[in-house]
Amino acid sequence: MNGHTHLWTLAVIGGLAVVTVLTRCFFFILDRPWTMPPWVHRALHYAPVAALAGVIAPEVVMQQGHLIAAWHDARLFSALAGALLYVWRRSVLLTIVGGMAVYLPLHLALGW
Hints:
Largest sheet: 2 strands, antiparallel
Radius of gyration: 23 Å
Order of helices and strands: HHHHEEHH
Low-confidence stretches: none
Structural class: mainly alpha
Strand content: under 5%
Strand order of the largest sheet: 1-2
Number of strands: 2
Distance between the termini: 52 Å
Helix content: over 70%
Mean pLDDT: 89
């Protein structure tokens, strides 16, 4: 039974490797140029923002898989401060520094 498990594991790793190589080399395998429609180009402009929102939003509004129940959470106020600073100055560095300047005193001093 133990040998069977190792064989299955190797088969899965091999299959995943083949799928990875094919998907990453897809554009090199084709013999003719492949162009994307204009709507795909427009949509790809929003992909980084959507990915960032998908990673950060749950961290801000959830704790251990549940929505936060109280408003006195340092993450809410730091995210709000960072968003306002970004809208005001359009500076990513100022957004990070400002958000942390709000987060650290609330988290460390007040225990939020």
